[in-house]
Specification:
The complex is a heterodimer. Chain A is an alpha/beta fold. Chain A is built from 22 helices and 38 strands. In chain A, the strands form 13 sheets. A five-stranded parallel beta sheet of chain A has the order 8-7-6-16-29, with helices on one face. In chain A, strands 18-27-21-22-23 form a five-stranded parallel beta sheet. Chain A is elongated. Chain B folds into three domains: 2-97, Rossmann fold (3-Layer(aba) Sandwich); 114-205 and 282-298 and 461-534, FAD/NAD(P)-binding domain; 301-460, 3-Layer(bba) Sandwich (FAD/NAD(P)-binding domain), CATH 3.50.50. The chains are: A alpha/beta, B alpha/beta.
C-alpha cells in the first residue's frame, strides 16, 4: 500500500455491556498513541445513528482510510459498518471489527484489570490486521438470462413453464424421445385417483406450444463449463432419422422386421425398431431405436412422405445459459437385477409400474387385465411393499411413494374384481401426507387385509399358483400364502442422473441422489451456484411435492435473472503468479472446482476462477509456496495478528483459531451466555478451519505460545465449505510428529469441533487449555 | 357457433348423454380425443381452423395456456372439466354459446408488492425469494419476533443441525434486506380486493418501547421487578414483564407486556437510550399488494384433551416441543436434561401419534413426529449416555431423505422401539410416568416407569380465520387451507392471488416448507407476469 495509513479507532461502551468492565476512555487514550491512528474515540453506542454520524464526519474531516471498531461481534454489526464505509465513499473491506464484548467484557466480568489489558491487545491485533486491508474489487458478473432445464418429466415441465411464463427463454433437454418422463407410465395418481394423463398432458402440451421454450428431445447434456450466470453447455442430439414431415401413418413400423419389447409399456407389448414412443406424449413422432435397427432400409421406401433419412448423424450444440435446473427424475427399482430376480421371473408377478400400465385403458392391453397373455380375474392377490427400499443390503432409504401407490392400486383392483381377496405385506404403512391416511382407511374398509411382516420368498407350485412365504409379526407365526397375482411395490432409484453427475461434477449423497446445498434451508440449491434441483433426482418424492419443488427451483432461477449482473462476495482467493510453482496442491484442496491450472510443464500456474470461488481459503491453507492469497484473511494479516497476540507474555497465552461459521459463533454464544473463562484466550477468526496453514501454528509456537487451538464445525456435515474441517484435521495430524521433532509437545496443539450453540463446549475446551498455563487454573470453571 | 368437446377422461358425467342433449337442442357438436394429447391437439387444430366461430369445451389448463394461439382466430375455451354435473356443464356451454358473458370489469391498478403473512422459516424464505427477484415484500408476523416454530427447536433432523444457528442468519438476512419491510407484532384486520390489487389493513400492536432507540441491550429486563410466565419457553422458565423474547430474536428489541406492567418506571430509568415509551398506542397501516402468501403455519395439538396420557396432571409427561426447549442450550435449564423436580433423567419414553391418526382428534398423519422423536431420542442419549430410551409407535414413518438412516442410527445407539401405542399413562409416587402398553410384536400387557414421557403431538390447523372481505381461501375438513389442486396447483389457494406455503396447508417438515415457500414465490412471479401481459 502506497498511501499513508490514516486509521480511525472507535471504542464502543455498548451501554454498560462493555463499559461496566472495561474503561473505554483509557483505551481511547492508549489507542491515540498507536502508530497510524488519526482519530480515536469512544462512544456510548457506536452502532447508533449518532455514533455512525460521528464516524462519517471523521472520515471526511480526517480523510480516514481504515476503520477499526472495537465493539461487539462482527457477526452482529460488520454489515452495519461496512454499509457506513460504502456510504462514505470507502471500500467496505477496509474495516476491522474487534470483539471486546463477547470475547472480553462479558466473559471476564470478574477480572476487570486483566480484561482491560486484553482489550488493548485485541485492538492491537485488529490494528495489525487492518493495516494490510486492501480495497477489494466488487465482483460483478453478467448473467445470461436463458435457463437450461435438464429432464422433461413433471418437474422439468413445471420448472420450464414457470421460468418461461415469467418472460425468460428456456431450453429443455430430455434424453428420451418424448416428454413426460415416468408420468407417462402412470395411469392414476393418488390420493384422489385422477388420471395422470389429465394432469401431465396439459403441462406437456403447454411446454410444447410455449413460444419461450425450446424443447430438445433425444438429447443429452455431455459437458458443462463456466460458472453461475455464464454456463456453456454442450448438448448431444440423436440423429434426426425421422423428419418433421412424419404424419404418424405408421407404414414404416409395419414393414420393420425388428421386434423388441416396448419399454414405455414395461415390456408388456412389443414394438418395432422404428416406432411411436408413446400414444399420448409429445412430441408425437416416430423414432428409430439405433440399438435394435439393423439398417435394412425397408422403412425408407415404405414412408409415403419421404420423411426418413437413415444417413442422419448425431449433432452437437453449445448453449449459453445463466442457470440450470436439474430435473432428471428417478428410475423404478428393477427387481430383475437384484435379489428379487427369481420372484420377478415368475409369470404372475408384476411390479407396481407394470400394473399401472395394465390398468390403463390407453395401455398395452387396452385396459384388459392380461397376465402372461391370458385375461384373468385374480382371486388371491398380494402386494409386497419395500421392494428395493429400506433394505439391509441395497437401497437403505424409504422410497416414500410405494405405500400410497400400492393402496391406490389395491383399491382399484378391488373395484374391478370385488371377489378378489387382496392383502398387503408391509413393514410400516407410511401414509404421511394429506389424504393418504384416508386412502389407508378406505383400503381397510374395502376389506383389504394388511399383514405386517417381511416376505421371505415367492415361488410357484405344481398347480401354477404362487406361494408366498412370510412372517406374520403381529400373530407371531410364519405362514404360506397361495396367490394368483403378486405385485412388487418397487422403490425409486437415482439411475437417470448419473451421466449428468460427471458432466456437471454435481455431488450425490450416499443414496445416489443429487445432494442439496443444505438439507433443511437450501434444499433446492446445490454446491454449484446457479445449478438447482427439482423433483425426484434429489430424493424420492410424490407428484405434488415434485411440482412444488420445481416451482421453487424456478423461483431460484428467477431470482438470479432479476438482475443483469450479479455481485459476488469479494472475500475470495487469488494467486500470486510470481510465487506459484504450479504444484497443483490447491487444485486438489478446492471443493468447488474454482482452481484452474494454466500453462504447460514448468510454466504451469494455478489460477482462481473467481466466480466459482467461495473464499474458504482451504487452498491457501495448503499452498506450500505462499502463493495463494485468501483475501481478507491473507498470510501477512494472520502472521501479524499472531505477532500482536503474542507480543507480551506469550507463555501465558492460548491462541485460538476459530472458523467464522461454527466455532467463532460458539465463542460468541459463550459470551452472550456470560460463560466466564480465562483472559489468556486470544481468538483469530478465519472463514474456515481449512484456512489454517500449519505454518501459522508453527509460527505461534516459535513466538512462544503456550497453547494453540484450532476449532471448526463438526464433521462431517456442518462445515460450510463441504470438508474444510476434515482438511484441517488431516493437516494437523501430519503436523503433530513435526512438532515433536522440533521439541514442541504436540499436546499443546488441540483440534476441537465446536458448533454455534456450543458455548459451553467452547468454555470447557479453553478452560482446559488455560489450566495448562503457568499459574494453573484461572477464571471460573464450567 | 360450433362446439368442440374434449373427451377428457376426467369428465365426471356422461359425455355421450350431453352430446345427445346438445344435438337435440340444435347445437353442432364435434368430439375430439383429449386435446392435451398429440392426436387430440392435431384434430382440434384442424377443426378449429375451419370456417365459423368455434367454442372449445375443455379444461382450465387449456384456457390458461392458450394452446390455440397459433390459429388465425383463437377459439373461446370454456372449462367443462371443472363442472361437477351434466346440468352444470350444459349451463356453462349454453351461456357461452349465447355470446360474450358479463360486462368486462374495470381493471384496477396492478400492485407488484407482496404481503407474506407469517414469519416462520416458510414465510422468510418466500419473502427472500421474492425480494431477491426484485419485488417489494411486507412480512407480517403476529409475534414479537420472526422465526416461528423453528426458532424454538433445539436441533433439526436428519442432520441434527442446530436449529437457531441455521435459522438465525436467515432471519438477519430478512431484516436487513432492502426490499423487505418487517411488520412484527402485527394483526391483520381486513383483506379486500383481488389478485393484483389487494388492500390490507394492518394494526401494529404497541410495544411500549421505541423501536428506533432500543438497541436490545437487555438492561431494562435486568431491573424489571415483575416476573411472568414465558410462553416462549412453554412455561418452563419465567421471564420479566419487559424483555426481549429470545436471545436471537429479530428484531432484537424489548417489549413490555402491558397487562402485567405495574408502571414502576424502573426500566425507563435503567434505559440510557430513553427508549421506554410507557404511553404507546397501536398504529394502523394500509398496504396495497398484488399477491398474498399465507405462511401462517400450524399449531401443536393440545394433548390435555387426550386425557388418558395425563398431560397437565403428571409432571413427568411433557410435549415434544417442551422437550426441545428442555434440551436446548438456550432453554430454561441451559440444556440440562432434568425432570421438573430437578432429578436427572435416566429413562425416557417417546409416545407417537398423540392426536394424529386418531379419528377423535386429527384423522391424518402429522408426518414430522416419527423422525422428530427419533432425533430427540438420539439427543437424549447424547446428553445422558446410559439412559433407557424407548419409542412407542404405530407405524414408523421415516420417509424423508436421510430419515431412514437416522432411524438405523437410533437403533444402533440403543433406542428401543416398541410397536404399540400406550393406552394409559399413570403417575407413580414420585411424579414419574408409568406407561401402560401392549407390545404388539412380543405380546402381553406391560408397564414401563420413566422419568419423562414425551408426547409426539400432531399438528393441527390454526383456528384463527383470516379477515378476507370477500372470498376467503377455502379450507379442508381439518381446517388447513385447501390448495387449488392437490397435485397440479399445490401452492395456490382457492382465492386467486393468494398462495400457500408450509404447514398452513397441512403438516410438513422444514425442508418441504422451504421448497414450497420458494415455489410459492415463483407462482407469485408468474401471476404478476400474466397480469402485466393481460393489461
Amino acid at each position: 500500500m502506497t498511501e499513508e495509513l490514516r486509521l480511525g479507532i472507535y471504542i464502543c461502551h455498548c451501554g454498560l455491556n462493555i463499559a461496566a468492565v472495561l474503561d473505554p476512555e483509557a483505551l481511547e487514550a492508549q489507542g491515540k498513541k498507536l502508530p497510524g491512528v488519526a482519530v480515536c474515540r469512544h462512544h456510548l453506542y457506536t452502532c447508533s445513528e449518532a455514533g455512525q454520524l460521528e464516524i462519517k464526519k471523521d472520515i471526511q474531516k480526517h480523510k480516514l482510510n481504515r476503520l477499526l471498531v472495537a465493539a461487539c461481534s462482527p457477526k452482529l454489526h460488520e454489515a452495519t459498518f461496512r454499509r457506513l464505509l460504502v456510504e462514505s465513499g470507502l471500500n467496505p473491506y477496509l474495516l476491522e471489527m474487534v470483539n471486546i464484548r463477547e470475547q472480553c467484557s462479558w466473559v471476564h466480568a470478574q477480572e476487570a484489570a486483566a480484561a482491560q489489558v486484553k482489550a488493548l491487545e485485541l485492538i492491537n491485533m485488529g490494528l495489525a490486521k487492518v493495516r494490510f486491508a486492501e480495497p477489494l474489487p466488487a465482483r460483478q458478473v453478467p448473467v445470461t438470462r436463458q435457463a437450461l432445464v435438464i429432464g422433461g418429466g413433471p418437474a422439468g415441465l413445471r420448472a420450464a413453464l414457470d421460468i418461461a411464463d415469467a418472460g425468460f427463454p428456456v431450453v429443455l433437454v430430455e434424453r428420451s424421445p418424448v416428454l413426460g418422463g415416468m408420468a407417462n407410465k402412470l395411469h392414476r395418481t393418488f390420493p384422489e385417483g385422477e388420471t395422470a394423463l389429465s394432469l401431465i398432458n396439459p403441462l406437456m402440451a403447454a411446454v410444447t406450444l410455449h413460444p419461450g421454450i425450446r424443447v430438445l428431445t433425444a438429447s443429452q447434456v455431455t459437458a458443462v463449463s463456466g460458472y453461475v450466470g455464464n454456463f456453456q453447455v454442450t448438448v448431444r442430439r440423436a440423429p434426426a432419422v425421422v423428419t418433421g414431415d412424419c404424419d404418424l401413418c405408421g407404414a414404416c413400423a409395419q414393414v420393420c422386421p425388428q421386434v423388441v419389447p416396448a419399454e414405455m409399456e414395461e415390456g408388456l407389448s412389443p414394438r418395432k425398431a422404428i416406432y411411436l414412443p408413446s400414444p399420448r406424449a409429445f412430441p408425437a413422432r416416430y423414432v428409430v431405436d439405433r440399438e435394435h435397427c439393423d439398417g435394412c432400409g425397408l422403412c425408407v421406401p415404405a414412408c409415403p412422405r419421404q420423411a426418413l433419412d437413415l444417413a442422419a448423424r448425431e449433432t452437437l450444440e453449445t448453449l449459453e445459459v445463466g442457470a440450470m435446473v436439474v430435473a432428471t427424475g428417478f428410475l423404478p427399482f428393477a427387481p430383475q437385477e437384484s435379489r428379487y430376480e427369481s420372484w420377478a421371473a415368475l409369470d404372475n408377478v408384476l411390479t407396481t409400474v407394470a400394473l399401472e400400465r395394465l390398468l390403463d385403458p390407453y395401455g398395452p392391453t387396452g385396459g384388459k387385465f392380461l397376465v402372461a397373455g391370458r385375461e384373468v380375474a385374480p382371486q388371491d392377490a398380494a402386494f409386497v411393499l419395500c421392494v428395493g427400499s429400506r433394505e439391509e443390503e441395497g437401497n437403505r432409504y424409504c422410497s416414500r411413494v410405494c405405500c400410497p401407490t400400492a393402496l391406490k392400486q389395491a383399491l382399484e383392483l378391488k373395484e374391478r374384481f370385488p371377489e378378489a381377496r387382496i392383502r398387503i405385506y408391509y413393514r410400516d404403512i407410511r401414509t404421511t401426507k394429506k389424504g393418504w391416511e384416508e386412502l389407508y382407511t378406505r383400503a381397510r374398509e374395502a376389506g383389504i387385509l394388511f399383514i405386517k411382516g417381511e416376505v421371505g420368498g415367492i415361488s410357484q407350485n405344481g398347480e401354477g399358483r404362487l406361494v408366498l412365504r412370510a412372517n406374520n409379526e403381529l400373530m407371531g407365526c410364519a405362514g404360506e400364502d397361495r396367490l394368483d397375482l403378486a405385485v412388487l411395490a418397487v422403490g425409486m432409484t437415482p439411475g437417470n442422473g448419473l451421466p449428468l453427475k460427471e458432466a456437471l461434477r454435481l455431488p450425490t449423497g450416499n443414496d445416489g441422489f443429487f445432494l442439496e446445498a443444505h438439507a433443511k434451508l437450501r434444499p433446492l440449491e446445490t454446491v454449484l451456484d446457479g445449478v438447482f434441483l427439482a423433483g425426484a433426482c434429489q430424493g424420492p418424492k410424490d407428484l405434488a411435492e415434485t411440482l412444488a419443488q420445481a416451482s421453487g427451483a424456478a423461483a431460484k432461477v428467477l431470482g438470479l435473472f432479476a438482475h443483469e449482473a450479479i455481485t459476488l462476495d469479494s472475500v475470495i482467493c487469488t494467486v500470486d503468479q510470481e510465487k506459484c510453482v504450479g504444484c497443483g496442491t490447491c487444485l486438489q484442496e478446492c471443493s468447488y472446482q474454482a482452481v484452474q491450472m494454466v500453462g504447460e510443464g514448468k510454466q504451469q500456474k494455478a489460477r482462481i476462477i473467481e466466480a466459482a470461488c467461495k473464499g474458504c481459503g482451504a487452498c491457501a491453507g495448503a499452498c506450500p509456496s505462499g502463493a495463494l492469497i485468501a483475501r481478507g484473511f491473507t498470510d501477512e494479516m494472520i502472521f501479524s495478528q499472531i505477532d500482536a497476540a503474542l507480543a507480551a507474555e506469550p507463555e501465558k497465552k492460548v491462541l485460538v483459531f476459530c472458523c467464522n461459521w461454527c466455532s467463532y459463533a460458539g465463542a460468541d454464544f459463550a459470551g452472550v451466555s456470560r460463560m466466564q473463562y480465562s483472559p489468556a484466550i486470544r481468538i483469530i477468526r478465519t472463514m474456515c478451519a481449512g484456512r489454517i496453514h500449519p505454518k501459522f501454528i508453527l509460527h505461534a509456537f516459535e513466538m512462544g505460545a503456550a497453547q494453540v487451538l484450532v476449532s471448526g464445525c463438526h464433521p462431517p456435515g456442518d462445515c460450510h465449505y463441504l470438508s474444510g474441517n476434515l482438511k484441517a484435521q488431516t493437516r494437523i495430524d501430519k503436523l503433530r510428529p513435526k512438532l515433536e521433532k522440533k521439541g514442541i509437545d504436540p499436546a499443546r496443539l488441540r483440534l476441537e469441533w465446536i458448533s454455534a450453540t456450543e458455548g459451553r463446549a467452547f468454555q470447557r475446551v479453553v478452560q482446559e487449555m488455560a489450566a495448562q498455563l503457568p499459574g494453573g487454573e484461572k477464571g471460573e470453571g464450567p | 357457433m360450433k362446439l368442440l368437446l374434449c373427451q377428457c377422461p376426467e369428465i365426471p358425467f356422461d359425455l355421450p348423454e350431453m352430446v345427445r342433449q346438445l344435438a337435440a337442442g340444435g347445437c353442432q357438436v364435434h368430439l375430439t380425443p383429449p386435446v392435451c394429447t398429440p392426436v387430440g391437439l392435431k384434430q382440434a387444430s384442424t377443426l378449429l381452423g375451419k370456417k365459423g366461430k368455434w367454442l372449445l369445451g375443455a379444461c382450465e389448463a387449456a384456457a390458461q395456456a392458450r394452446w390455440f394461439r397459433h390459429l388465425k382466430k383463437e377459439p373461446q375455451i370454456i372449462n367443462v372439466r371443472g363442472c361437477a354435473a351434466l346440468e352444470e356443464a350444459l349451463g356453462v356451454i349454453l351461456l357461452a354459446l349465447e355470446g360474450p358473458g358479463g360486462r368486462p370489469q374495470a381493471t384496477p391498478p396492478l400492485h407488484q408488492e407482496v404481503l407474506v403473512i407469517g414469519g416462520g422459516v416458510g414465510g422468510c424464505q418466500a419473502a427472500l425469494d421474492l425480494a431477491n427477484a426484485g419485488y417489494q415484500v411486507y412480512l407480517a408476523d403476529s409475534s414479537l419476533s420472526i422465526g416461528g416454530a423453528m426458532a424454538q427447536l433445539d436441533k433439526t433432523f436428519p442432520t441434527l443441525d442446530c436449529s437457531i444457528c441455521i435459522l438465525g442468519p436467515k432471519l438477519v438476512e430478512v431484516s436487513t434486506h432492502d426490499r423487505i419491510e418487517l411488520l412484527t407484532y402485527a394483526q391483520i384486520d381486513q383483506i379486500s380486493g383481488q389478485a393484483g390489487s389487494f388492500q390490507v389493513e394492518v394494526t401494529l400492536k404497541p410495544r411500549f418501547v421505541d423501536m428506533s432507540k432500543c438497541v436490545g441491550c437487555g438492561r431494562c429486563a435486568a431491573v424489571c421487578p415483575v416476573i411472568v410466565p414465558s410462553r416462549w419457553n412453554l412455561g418452563l422458565k419465567p421471564r420479566k414483564c419487559i424483555r426481549i423474547i429470545f436471545e436471537q430474536s429479530v428484531p432484537l428489541r424489548s417489549t413490555i407486556e402491558k397487562d402485567f406492567c405495574i408502571d414502576c418506571r424502573m426500566c425507563a430509568e435503567a434505559c440510557d437510550r430513553g427508549a421506554i415509551k410507557l404511553k404507546d398506542a397501536p398504529r394502523s397501516r394500509r398496504l396495497r399488494v398484488g399477491a398474498i402468501v399465507l405462511a401462517t403455519g400450524a399449531k401443536p395439538f393440545d394433548p390435555s384433551i387426550k386425557s388418558e396420557y395425563g398431560y397437565g396432571r403428571i409432571p413427568g409427561v411433557i410435549t415434544n416441543l417442551e422437550y426441545e426447549r428442555l434440551i436446548c442450550a438456550t432453554g430454561p435449564t441451559q440444556g440440562a436434561l432434568v425432570t421438573v423436580q430437578g432429578r436427572e433423567v435416566e429413562s425416557l419414553a417417546f409416545i407417537q401419534c398423540v392426536g394424529s391418526r386418531d379419528r377423535r382428534f386429527l384423522p391424518y398423519c402429522s408426518g414430522y413426529c416419527c423422525t422428530a422423536s427419533i432425533k430427540e431420542a438420539v439427543i437424549a442419549l447424547e446428553h445422558q449416555p446410559g439412559a433407557g430410551v424407548t419409542i412407542f409407535y404405530n407405524d414408523l414413518r421415516t420417509s424423508g431423505k436421510g430419515f431412514e438412516e437416522l432411524y438405523r442410527r437410533a437403533q444402533r445407539a440403543g433406542v428401543r422401539f416398541i410397536k404399540g401405542l400406550p393406552g394409559l399413562i399413570k403417575e407413580d409416587g414420585e411424579g414419574r410416568a408409568v406407561v401402560c402398553y401392549e407390545d404388539l410384536l412380543q405380546g402381553g400387557r406391560r408397564e414401563l416407569v420413566v422419568d419423562l414421557a414425551v408426547l409426539a403431538v400432531g399438528l393441527k390447523a390454526p383456528s384463527a380465520s383470516l379477515p378476507f372481505h370477500d372470498g376467503p381461501p377455502e379450507r379442508d375438513a381439518s381446517g388447513f387451507f385447501r390448495p387449488r389442486h392437490a397435485i397440479l396447483h399445490p401452492l395456490e389457494s382457492s382465492t386467486p392471488g393468494v398462495f400457500l406455503a408450509g404447514t398452513s396447508q397441512g403438516p410438513k417438515d422444514i425442508s418441504e416448507t422451504v421448497c414450497q415457500a420458494s415455489g410459492a414465490a415463483a407462482r407469485v412471479m408468474a401471476l404478476f407476469a400474466a397480469l402485466k401481459k393481460a393489461r
